Amino acid sequence: LAGPVNDSVFRQVGVTAQKTMRLLPASGRKATQKVVVGDQDGVITCFGIKKGEAVPVFKTLPGQKISRLELGGALNTPQEKIFVATGSEVKGFTKRGKQFLSFETNLTESIKAMHISGADLFLCASYIYNHYCDCKDQHYYLSGDKINDVLCLPVDKVNCITPVLACQDRVLRVLQGSDLLYEVKVPGPPTVLALNNGNGGDSGEEIVYGTSDGKLGLIQITGSKPIPKWEIGNEKKRGGILCIDSFDILGDGVKELLVGRDDGVVEVYNFESADDPVLRYDHSIASIQGGCVGKDGYDEILASTYSGWLTGLTTEPVHREGGSGEELKLSQEMQSKISSLRNELEHLQMKVLQEREKYQQSSQSSTAVSSVPTFSVNDKFTLNKDDASYSLILEVQTAIDNVLVQSDVPIDLLDVDKNSAVVSFSSCDSEPNSNFLLATYRCQANTMRLELKVRSIEGQYGTLQAYVTPRIQPKTCQVHQYQIKPLSLHQRTHSIDHDRPMNTLTLKGQFSFAEIHSWVVFSLPEVPEKTPAGDSITFYFQNTFLGTQLESTYRKGEGCFKSDNISTISILKDVLSKEATKRKINLNISYDINEESVRHTLKLIHPKLEYQQLLAKKVHLIDALRELQVHEGNVDFLLPEYRSILEEADQLLEEYKRQPAHLERLYGMITDLFIDKFKFKGTNVKTKVPLLLEILDGCDQDGLISFFEAA
After folding, report:
1. Distances (CA, A) of 706 to 565, 602, 630
2. Is residue 679, in this structure, part of any structural domain at all?
3. Do 405 and 498 belong to one domain?
4. Residue 224 is part of a domain; what is its CATH number?
5. Which of 38, 274, 334, 457 has the fewest Cβ atoms within 10 angstroms?
6. Who wins on pLDDT, 154 or 291?
7. Residue 693 forms part of a structural domain
8. Could you give the number of structural domains in the chain?
9. pLDDT at residue 1 tops 50
10. What pLDDT digit, counting tens, does each position of 196-210 carry?
11. Are 555 and 645 part of one and the same domain?
């Protein structure tokens, strides 16, 4: 068989986190492996598969939620000891379930990431990294941004301890003891690290990373510098990467790369050449492992989902070769399994009915106490660079009934292809209640994951709220809040073009480093909440909608902000002034406006404006052209450009539908740029806005620039 195509569900546990499922080493060459998984109820479950049924090995009592699960043991021996991170404690269990370790660390926060190598234990909280050897503190490091994962190069290959931290600011930090050896810039916020080929490759120095925006890459971590090997983008706009493993699932002697994404997709990459990996399969995941679980001789990919389902994608063929007797045997096996599942389902349905009746009776009694059922929601609110929109992903452990979305700032809801929910809008009064959006998504049965897309307007800031109601009784709801920041469409970047014409805003006053940092956190996304170490800090940003840039440098008593877009400087000036006023801090504000930057920004906007105006014109012509086609039958007499519109009508309508109010947003940005340019000169030009809009309808770049310069 060419690869994994058939799937089977082994069992369900509680809600699981990233990297909390592993396969124990097989006892023999072709023996099946045991599965061990830790859930957010604090339960560790270990089971094997016999005759297609899950057979428990051990199960621990509930406790604090398990954030990580790793296998360990002495170097160069089978890694069959089970270690779990729960709160700030690390526990160790044998493969039979006997606890042999309970290590209370000196971390004040819960453990977020863990790696084990022999007697060495590497732990990370949000910003803190600790290295322990035989449970004794060895090294410590404070990161500049949140740590998402940790890994150590194999000591038996590189002959030294080299930890690598995956940090939210798009950087891999390579450590030596308690010191930073060097930083590796990667194209997105890295969420997961794995050793290439499971062992770091021939040199032991190769690390595969996955990012929250769905990119993959391989980097060689040498003792002096990083060597990038390959990088794979996210052309299909799939989810962020949660887990990575290496396993020879195709049986060709070369380990494939197994990748699990947060939108439920499992991918298999193989190396057809010695260079870049090629995607061979994908399947509709928190942890992923390759091994032999269900049946001797048939390898499979084992995946655990957020809601706790453990699923195997196996290489075992559905239809065996050999003859009618074997086919009959297989059919009987399948019938027996189906019958068993039906009986189990009927039993569960009866149990649900009984419990529901019991609840109804108890709720109507005079001594009834209301009980609100609890449920977990896994949410993610991230900015997409490709289309300058925010993705809001809501994943619930049970089916979602509906999600109510409310915003106190103007935002656009965009279409999502994968979204099957029915959306309805309610009218809302923006004046007294600051209520600009009220939309309800009614989900189809068994929808456990909902993805929404919104686009904000820079300068308008507030809160987006999602009221999540699952299909459970009694009805209950959770509210989740997401901040829309003043410069919400800006994204962190490693560097900017210093040759662009820049406008400068300078602030001076009696404020601390922590105070000005909190103002920047309030204004811009992707800034760590913790005040940076040192006396000063510089952050670079890029506007995902326009491509303009921002440099932010500040220290105690002084802040300097540079941008090639006057509107960015204007928004920052207003917001920072307001935040300082709240704290009764007097600011001395000065600015240096570069007139050339206006022309530069208009040249960046104009191609987008031209494209959107042309798209709108084509869409408005479609109905008339289709009517003409119906009456005439033949449209050969039309000009080629009109025939082209008819041929591409469906794609044009789809694109226009995906980007509502895109043209209006561009008009708004140009209008703001016009007003902001003259605001810094102390001139109010709002009366000239109607004339500006007339020029915009004409879509003449030179005329637009001349209007800005002559006004």
Report:
1. 18, 11, 45
2. yes
3. no
4. 2.130.10.10
5. 274
6. 154
7. yes
8. 4
9. no
10. 999 999 899 999 999
11. no
> How far apart (Å, rounded) are the C-alpha atoms in residues 130 and 117?
14
Task: Say which residue the tokens 């049986």 belong to.
Answer: 251
Q: Where are the alpha helices (DSSP H) in 28-79?
A: none
- φ, ψ (nearest 5 deg) of residue 423: -105, 140
Same domain assignment for residues 226 and 136: yes
CATH number of the domain bearing residue 421:
2.60.40
d(Cα 99, Cα 435) in Å, to the nearest integer?
54
Q: Are residues 27 and 175 in the same domain?
A: yes
Q: How far is CA 544 from CA 98, 151, 398, 461, 521, in A?
A: 52, 31, 35, 17, 18
Alpha-carbon distances, residue 250 vs 138, 246, 465, 605, 694 (angstroms): 42, 12, 45, 49, 62
Q: d(Cα 85, Cα 18) in Å, to the nearest integer? A: 12
Rounded Cα distance, 569 and 548, in Å:
12
- 537 in the same domain as 390: no
For residue 392, give its domain range: 377-484
- In the chain, DSSP finds a helix count (H) and a strand count (E) of 11, 43
Residues in the chain: 711
For residue 234, what are the contacts with CB-CB under 8 A and spacing of at least 6?
213, 214, 215
| 707, containing H or E segment | helix 701-710
Quick one: average pLDDT of 158-165?
93
Asked whether the beta carbons of 301 and 4 are under 8 A apart, the reply is yes
- pTM score, two decimals? 0.84
- Measuring CA to CA, how many Å separate 456 from each of 334, 549, 670? 52, 18, 16
Same domain, residue pair 461 and 497: no
State which H helix or E strand residue 432 sits in: helix 430-433
Q: Are 695 and 613 in contact (CB under 8 A)?
A: no
Domain-located, residue 341:
no
Q: What is the domain-level CATH number for residue 519?
A: 3.30.160
DSSP string, 390-414: EEEEEEESS-EEEEEEEESS-EEEE
- Three-state SS at 206: strand
Q: 592 by DSSP, 3-state: which?
A: strand
One domain, residues 530 and 470:
no
In a domain, 284, yes or no: no
Q: Residue 15 above 50 pLDDT?
A: yes
| Cα–Cα distance, 335 to 9 (Å, whole number) | 16
Peptide bond just before 474 cis, omega within 30 deg? yes
> In terms of domains, do 607 and 574 share one?
no
Which residues have C-beta within 8 Å of that of residue 624, sequence separation ≥ 6? none
